[in-house]
TrEMBL record, chain A:
Residues 801-893 form the RNA-polymerase II-associated protein 3-like C-terminal domain. Pfam families: RPAP3_C, TPR_1, TPR_16. It is found in: Cytoplasm. Its main location: cytoplasm. This is Sperm-associated antigen 1 HSD-3.8. It comes from Collichthys lucidus (Big head croaker).
TrEMBL record, chain B:
The lineage of its organism: Eukaryota, Metazoa, Chordata, Craniata, Vertebrata. Pfam families: WD40. It is found in: Dynein axonemal particle. GO terms for biological process: apoptotic process. SMART domains: WD40. Key assembly factor specifically required for the stability of axonemal dynein heavy chains in cytoplasm. InterPro entries: WD40/YVTN_repeat-like_dom_sf, WD40_repeat_dom_sf, WD40_rpt. WD repeats lie at residues 133-146. Keywords: Apoptosis, Cytoplasm, Repeat, WD repeat. Its main location: other. This is Dynein axonemal assembly factor 10. GO terms for cellular component: dynein axonemal particle.
């Protein structure tokens, strides 16, 4: 480059002169290469493209590519593209799109016909339609040319001078009030999305089809708001969607938005609902897990709340244990009640079910109220709640399980409220029906209240009503219901100690509330006779004893409670308190005066059936020690995991690796640890280990997305692109929304192609090429591992599989020659499916395939269809598979079809019929 | 965006040549059918229904009408009825039952001159509130109609006596997120954009983009107004962030010069409000994505909130024909499916892939 040009380059980099013509010497490779000024480059490109200075196609290209590196979004780079057609896509891609379209066409046809049918019967006129707008209002279209005075009704237009605005301020203010926009500055309107969006949609008049569409639409709007970081609006729209039809996706998304808004409680309840609707749901699980640390935070605050608790205790106030169990199992149909804050109608015919749900929900919300922000989501509660508002608020200071009740008396008098009377009417009705339907099954209420499963419906109803009344603070009424239920139970001779125990326990809670400690103790004792080592009756009895100042017995009960569940904070506190009292009373020898503390069997936590084996102290102690150790291990495990996670966050992957490895020593069955460690291995580029960890994780949890994804990355690191792409496809199959995986897949597909090209394999090109490559092209993503990558695969396999390809081949041959299918099946069973193609290596031939098929069919299919599926899923990726497939003879083909017929008849969680069908297409 | 694989692709799926000039094409909600509206050479109007089947568009029904039909919308009908509202060259607003398209279910002489643009809201579950249709005409008026009220509009936005009447080229509903709130945006041939608040029956905002406004559309009709795209005669389009309105500065906007010719249409993807397609006078389509700024509003020197515009990103562009693409409609049911018609007397069904990635 000339000095002159260099000078002008320097010159131009500071004060670029765009006005002049581009000097010819700037149309030069070196100059363009060094030029960093995007605008100037664009100009050069324009000159080059115009052809005024001659046409230099390569220079144009060079300039474009340089510009792209500097500013990929430069407008100069935009080119007119011809529209793509089906031919410009690969066959696979197009067929996928086309099939999707076809499926959609069929679906819409169905929807359409169903819509038409409905519209024939339905009256299209909707009564709830808003009225017609006030007739023919005229809005003046003021224009800039119009004198200003005329523009009164118009608010404002863009270019105005400031003086003019002075007189608009008042009007502006009024309008602002009209629009209810909360603002601090007058001259601005912000349309924040949420304030007036109704969170409930009245969909009662719509057909199912319309509801579905509408719910989806609202959800989409929520998604969009979420993407725009407008989380409150998103929550509002998700709530709308849920109020039409509750769906898993909407709950999941709302949970995510709530997490963003830090409304942990509502997020958690949403996650729980997701899991209830769809137990294996990953997202729900994931959110819930991410919520765990928040839970910790929460429990800390709860603990703090507890600290003020003993104080009140000494003042002679009673403790109430709220029903924990009922809170857990309320069904998910009350979601609307909470989210939309619509009042529960007291006259609902199914009062027992709906209404019991709402207060249960409120229990949850009560939980949230302790947090400063929790309040907002709760919204206005049912009318019922309002009448007891003071009561609920008073509980704000204590945890949700243990509530100080200062106003129990008041609440009892409240028992004559409207709700109470309707509830008791229902109770009477069900009570009269009791005689006839005793002994019937409890199908109706099972979903509402699982523990009363063995109770006949009238009794279950009684119990639910009791629970409801209890939660509303009408303890006397609740007491009556429980007594009726117990009476009914004993009358009908139902042999269900569990249910009876709960009834007694609940009644005891009522007694405790009313201050009737004696009866409470009696009921608790009965409950404990029915179900030894039930936590709640024990705790209640302990409290009752304590309130009667029978501290020794209270101490024993508390201690027993702690043996069952060490995490009951109230018991800890009480034990400490009582210890002090007893030391005061009896001096240092106080322990000797205690009655025997029954030893709780280990199984009590699950079953609580065995009698207290007070004699077997030694054995029990050993068990206790073992349990302590276990607990310690648990704690250590948790802390190690936490430390590991912290290291990961800080980027200290080596340290994290150590922590995770220790974790796994304590608990080798923890899937998340494996995936976490795999991540660390990935970060330190130890791909083989990462892959092993992922394999282990997948063994524990065969549908773990993370594991698949990380294994894909590991495989990518190992340059095994084929395995990588299949893993990524697995991820996308599990959850098509993982965008990283999609991106990764695209990258890997490119890499895979390159590697294939490098290995002199025919390049996998879309359809335009010769027909022979087309066959290969079809399999580009799944099959044809080149010799290169399989060779590398062997290196890895030596670590994993000591048998090796040679031995495997030997064994397979031996089995085949002897016709010993069992041996072959065993061999296959002991082989990892993903290793199969590598083990087969180049030895794959028709006989081998046939033997494998037969062995899978005759021996393995019955035992482990999933393994068969996995094997088949991997077998077709083996070398030479497509060639071998063509050379199969009739018999061998028959075996294959048989196998797939059998496989498709098998029901499994791991694969669907569609999967099998897809797989079969690859074979047959 | 580096890999070409991750870019959305616009694929021409079906192309159908027609024997008339087609002005508008609309998907029938909840179906694989679309309606084409146009003008026979002999000066009559035509309405055709096509069904997408086996990779072809098959004619299901054809009706001839006395006047050329300029525009149509399904926005104000229920999913069960799916009546189309059309505006014709004579200024009539008609609502047709597509099952029996011979006689309109509603008809009114809406304007003195051609109805240039029509939009509906309150139907299909889009937007709460009453079903309403807005029409914009060459006679300079914008009128809002309720199909339940015969003969007279429920709102009329016209210039005062003595003002020059501008040709209204485009109208759009928006802000219909509850029963009361609703806005109409209208674009005029002189570059005026006016936003009418139907709740207060007042002009809420106006601006001028210096060039004739060919098309305006809110990104969503049934949310608190979020974004408005206005396209212009000389190939520019403006995206307004409608969340923060400053008293003097109005709404923040970003403009982009994309096509070298008029941008006839803009349509937002029903499944993602931040993606939209513009159709140009040179027969090209551009697919855009709006990127929000980190903060959508900031305080100006007086401590008053001012909106901050984001940026637009070109996702894909293709050239379909040499003639302008006059209409474009995304399928509300199938993501990525759209129908467009141009002045080359043909209608095309396009598939846009990988819209999720974008």
């Amino acid at each position: 480059m000339s000095a002159d040009a260099f000078f002008s380059l320097q010159n131009q980099s500071t004060t670029a002169d765009y006005s002049g013509k581009v000097p010819v010497e700037h149309l030069d490779y070196d100059y363009i290469k060094k030029c960093k000024d995007v605008k100037y480059l664009e100009k050069i490109l324009k000159v080059l493209r115009s052809g005024d200075e001659g046409i230099y196609p390569h220079l144009i290209k060079f300039c474009e590519s340089h510009l792209e590196t500097l500013d990929p979004r430069s407008r100069a780079l935009r080119k007119d593209n011809p529209v793509a057609t089906a031919a410009s896509l690969s066959k696979d891609e197009w067929s996928q799109i086309f099939d999707g379209l076809k499926m959609w066409q069929e679906e819409t046809k169905k929807t359409e016909t169903s819509l038409k049918q409905q519209s024939m019967f339905d009256d299209p006129v909707k009564e709830n339609m808003p009225p017609i707008r006030g007739s023919n209002c005229s809005v003046p279209v003021s224009q800039t040319s119009v004198p200003k005075e005329k523009r009164n009704s118009s608010k404002h237009t863009l270019p105005r001078d400031y003086r003019e605005w002075d007189k608009f301020d008042v009007e502006k203010e009024c309008e602002r009030i009209d629009r209810n926009v909360v603002e601090n500055d007058p001259p601005v309107i912000i349309n924040t999305g949420h304030p007036k969006i109704k969170t409930k949609v009245d969909a009662s008049l719509l057909t199912q089809q319309e509801k579905l569409l509408l719910a989806n639409r609202e959800k989409d709007k929520g998604n969009e708001a979420f993407r725009a970081n407008d989380y409150e609006e998103a929550v509002a729209y998700y709530s709308r969607s849920l109020s039409i039809i509750p769906t898993v996706a909407a709950y999941n998304n709302r949970a995510q938005a709530e997490i963003k808004l830090k409304q942990w409680h509502s997020a958690m309840t949403d996650c729980q609902r997701v899991l209830k609707l769809e137990p294996g749901n990953m997202k729900g699980d994931y959110f819930l897990n991410s919520n765990k640390e928040l839970k910790q935070l929460l429990s800390e605050t709860e603990k703090k709340m507890m600290e003020c608790h003993p104080e009140k205790q000494r003042k002679g106030k009673k403790i109430l244990i709220q029903e924990i169990e009922e809170k857990d199992d309320h069904s998910n149909n009350e979601t609307k009640a909470e989210q939309t804050a619509c009042p529960v109608e007291p006259s609902q015919p199914v009062g027992g079910e709906e209404s019991s749900a709402a207060p249960a929900e409120r229990g949850d919300m009560g939980n949230a109220q302790k947090k400063p922000h929790g309040r907002g989501d709760g919204g206005p509660h049912s009318e019922f709640n309002n009448s007891h508002h003071g009561h609920w608020k008073s509980k704000g200071g204590s945890s949700d399980k243990y509530k100080v009740t200062q106003e129990s008396k008041e609440k009892v008098t409240n028992g004559t409220s409207k709700r109470g009377s309707t509830a008791s009417v229902q109770a009477d009705q069900s009570g009269s029906g009791k005689g006839t339907s005793v002994g019937g099954n409890a199908g109706e209420t099972v979903n509402l209240d699982a523990p009363c499963g063995a109770l006949p419906p009238p009794l279950a109803r009684l119990k639910n009503e009791g629970n409801l009344l209890f939660k509303n603070g009408q303890f006397a009424d609740a007491l009556e219901k429980y007594s009726q239920a117990i009476q009914g139970c004993t009358d009908s001779g139902i042999d269900s100690p569990e249910d009876l125990c709960i009834l007694y326990s609940n009644r005891a809670a009522c007694y405790l509330k009313d201050g009737n400690s004696q009866d409470c103790i009696q009921d608790c004792t009965k409950a404990l006779e029915l179900q030894p080592f039930s936590l709640k009756p024990l705790l209640r009895r302990a409290m009752a004893y304590e309130s009667l100042e029978r501290y020794r017995k209270a101490y024993v009960d508390y201690k027993t409670v702690l043996q069952i569940d060490i995490s009951v904070q109230a018991a800890h506190d009480s034990v400490n308190r009582i210890t002090r009292v007893l030391i005061e009373q009896d001096g240092t020898e106080w322990r000797k005066k205690l009655p025997d503390i029954p030893m709780v069997p280990l199984s009590a936590q699950q079953h609580r059936r065995e009698q207290p084996p007070s004699a077997e102290v030694l054995q029990a102690r050993a068990e206790k020690a073992a349990r302590d150790a276990e607990r310690k291990a648990e704690v250590r495990f948790a802390s190690l995991k936490q430390e590991g996670n912290d290291f990961v966050k800080k980027g200290q992957y080596q340290d994290a690796l150590g922590k995770y490895t220790e974790c796994l020593k304590l608990k080798p069955e923890e899937c998340p640890i494996y995936t976490n460690r795999a991540l660390c291995y990935l970060k330190v580029e130890r791909f083989t280990e990462a892959k092993q960890d992922c394999d282990a994780a997948l063994k524990l949890e065969p549908t773990n997305k993370k594991a698949f994804y990380r294994r894909a990355l590991a495989n990518k690191g190992l340059k095994d692109y084929l395995a990588c792409s299949s893993d990524l496809q697995e991820v996308l199959q599990l959850d098509p929304n993982v965008q990283e995986a999609e991106k990764e897949l695209e990258e890997v597909t490119v890499l895979l192609r390159q590697s294939l090209v490098n290995a002199n394999a025919p390049p996998a090109k879309p359809r335009k090429t010769v027909p022979i490559t087309e066959v290969e092209g079809d399999e580009e993503t799944t099959a044809v591992p080149n010799s290169d990558s399989s060779g590398r695969g062997e290196d890895v396999s030596i670590n994993l599989q000591p048998a090796g390809a040679y031995e495997f081949g030997q064994a397979l041959n031996a089995a085949r020659c002897s016709g010993n299918m069992t041996a072959c099946a065993e061999l296959l069973a002991s082989t990892k499916p993903e290793m199969l193609p590598q083990l087969l290596g180049t030895q794959l031939d028709g006989h081998n395939i046939s033997v494998i098929m037969q062995a899978l069919d005759s021996h393995l299919l019955e035992k482990d269809p999933n393994l068969v599926y996995q094997h088949l899923n991997h077998l077709h990726t083996a070398d030479r598979f497509s060639v071998v497939l063509m050379l199969l003879d009739k018999d061998e083909r028959r075996h294959m079809t048989q196998l797939f017929e059998h496989l498709s008849a098998v029901e499994s969680m791991e694969f669907t019929k569609n999967d099998v069908q897809n797989l079969a297409n690859k074979y047959i | 965006m580096s890999s070409p694989l991750s870019k959305p692709q616009i694929i021409a799926h079906i192309q159908k040549s027609l024997n008339y000039t087609v002005f508008d094409s609309k998907w029938i909600p909840c179906s694989a059918k679309f309606v084409c509206l146009g003008n026979f050479a002999r000066g009559t109007g035509v309405m055709q229904i096509y069904e997408v089947q086996h990779g072809e568009a098959q004619l299901v029904k054809e009706v001839e009408k006395p006047k050329p039909i300029k525009c149509g919308t399904f926005g104000a009908t229920s999913l069960q009825q799916r009546h189309i509202a059309t505006g014709d060259f004579d200024g009539n607003l008609n609502i047709w039952n597509l099952e029996m398209p011979e006689v309109p279910v509603y008809t009114v002489k809406a304007h003195k001159e051609i109805v240039n643009s029509i939009d509906g809201v309150g139907g299909l579950g889009i937007g709460d509130g009453a079903p309403e249709i807005v029409t914009g005409s060459r006679d300079g008026t914008v009128k809002v109609w309720d199909p339940r009220q015969k003969d007279s509009p429920v709102a009329n936005m016209e210039p005062m006596e003595g003002e020059t009447k501008r040709d209204c080229w485009t109208v759009a509903f928006g802000h219909a997120f509850n029963d009361q709130d609703r806005c109409v945006c209208a674009g005029y041939d002189n570059g005026d954009i006016k936003l009418f608040d139907l709740r207060n029956m007042s002009l809420r905002w106006e601006t001028n983009i210096k060039n004739g406004v060919c098309c305006v559309e809110f990104d969503r009709k049934d949310i608190n107004m979020n974004k408005l795209v206005a396209t212009s005669l000389e190939g520019k389009f403006h995206v307004f962030d409608m969340r923060t309105q400053h008293l003097t500065k109005g709404f923040a906007s970003v403009s982009e010069k994309a096509h070298k010719s008029t941008i006839w249409q803009v349509r937002h993807l029903p499944q993602n409000r931040d993606i939209f397609m513009t159709a140009g006078g040179a027969g090209n389509l551009h697919l855009w994505k709006y990127e929000y700024p980190a903060q959508r509003s900031k305080k100006d020197s007086d401590g008053v909130d001012v909106g901050v515009a984001g940026s637009v990103n070109l996702l894909q562009n293709v050239t379909l024909s040499t003639q302008p693409i006059a209409s474009l409609d995304w399928s509300p049911d199938k993501q990525g499916l759209c129908v467009c018609s141009g002045f080359d007397q043909s209608v095309r069904v396009l598939i846009v892939t990988k819209l999720n990635v974008a």
